Amino acid sequence: MLKMLVTLLILSLSSTITSSLNACENCIPITHCVSASQLVARDRSEKTGQILRKNICGFDSRVSLPKICCNNINQSIDNQETGEGTTSKLSNHHNVNLLPTQCGHIVTQRLLGGYRVWDNEFPWVVRIAYRNRDSNAFQCMGTLINSRYVLTTADCLIGRRILGVRVGGRIQSPECTNICESDVQDIGVSEQITHPEYTSSSRTLNNIGLLRLRNPVDLSKENAGVICLPVTDEHRLKNVTGSTGAVSYWDENGSELQFRYHATISTTEECDLYVNKNRNYRRDLAKNSICTVIVNNHRCESVPGAPLMLIGSDPDSYSYYQYGILNTAKSECGPEIYTDVRKYMTWILDTIKS
Asked: Is the pLDDT of residue 324 over 60?
C-alpha cells in the first residue's frame, strides 16, 4: 500500500510542479497521511490520482517524498460519504451489523421546554469518569452506539486518565423519595481511540473519538440503550438546517440529574462565521461541524461529548438519531459547535470491531 501510494503521487508530480502548490495547515509527507492511504485502499482509479495531485503542497527533501494537504484528502473522503462525490453505500459496510437496528427508542415526545429528563428517556447518554490529582470525577459525556463502544470527542480522550463509564443514574420520578439510585453499570475501558488526524490546534476538525469498553453493557436493563447513527443515505443526506434537535447531559454539580434542552441548527454560513470567531479566518474549520442556537434554555450550560439528536424515521417507527457531538463546554449562552457525525460514519465503521 505504501509503495503504491508513493508511486502514484511521484508519477504525477511532473504535471503538477509547474502549477502553484497548495497552501494549507496540515501539509505533511504523503506516507504520514492516514486519509490518503484509506483513499487509495478504497479506490485506485485515476480519480484518486487526480485528488492526490490536486492537493500536493510541497516536497520533503529529507525523505524524498511529496507532501500533501491531508485535511483536504479527508474532506474528499467525506464528500464521497455524504453524496457530494460518488456516494458510498455504508449500508453494505462489513461492520454495519455491529450497529443495532433497535436503537434510539422514543419513550415519549414532549413540547419544547421541560429541562429535567424523564426516567430512561435517553438511556444511551453515559458519563465518562476521570482520575484527577485529588479525586475522581465525571467530566465528559458519551453515547452508546452498541454494547461495547461509546462515541465522544477526541478532546475528551487525549491526555486524559479515564477510569471508565457509567451507564444509568439516579431515578427522577416523583415516587422516588428514599433510595433514588437506579441499577447503574460502571464499566472500565480497554481502548481509547481518537481520530488519527485530530490536532488540538484546530479543535473543530476531526474532533471525534471512541471508547471500547472492557465488558459489554447489559442492554436488557431499562436504563441502558443505544442511539441510532445516520448510516443510510436518507439520514446522511438529510438537510438539517433549521431543524430543532434535543441535547442531553448529566449534571454533576451536586444534583446528579440528567437534563435536556433544545437547539436549532444554523446555516452553514452562520456556522462558518461562528467557528472562525476570534481567530484567523479558515473556511475548513467549519466544514465538518454543525452549529446550533439554544432554544429557550435558562440553564445555558452543557458538557462536552453531549449528543445532538434529531428524530428520524425507520420503515416501521420513529427513533432518535445522533447528528452531532458537542465539542466544548461553556457556561454562557450562545451558539454551540458540534462535530457532524455524518462526516465520520466510514471512520466509525472502519474502527469498531466485534
From this structure: yes
Cα 147 to Cα 149: distance, rounded to the nearest angstrom = 6
Smallest Cα–Cα separation from 325: which of 237, 249, 231?
249
pLDDT in tens, 32-60: 787 777 677 666 667 777 788 888 888 77
Q: Identify the pLDDT of residue 43.
A: 66
Residue 217 located in a structural domain: yes
Last residue of a domain, which of 60, 88, 116?
A: 88
pLDDT value of residue 352: 97
Q: Which residue has the cell 479558515?
A: 282
Query: For residue 125, what is its C-alpha cell?
Result: 447518554
Tell me which residue range forms the domain holding 56. Answer: 2-88
Grade residue 243 by pLDDT with cuts at 50, 70 and 90.
very high
- Helix, strand, coil % in the chain, rounded to nearest 5: 25, 30, 50
CA distances from 71 to 52, 256, 306 (A): 12, 39, 25
Which of the pair, 3 or 76, is modelled with greater confidence? 76
Same domain, 133 and 229: yes
Domains contained in the chain, number = 2
Say whether both 295 and 220 belong to one domain.
yes
Q: Which residues contact 93 (CB under 8 A, 6 or more apart)?
A: 346, 349
**Residue 16 burial (C-beta neighbours within 10 Å; 0-12, 13-18, 19+):** middle
- The arithmetic mean of pLDDT across residues 322-327, rounded, is 95
- Backbone CA torsion sign across 75, 78, 79, 85: positive
CATH of the domain at 240: 2.40.10.120
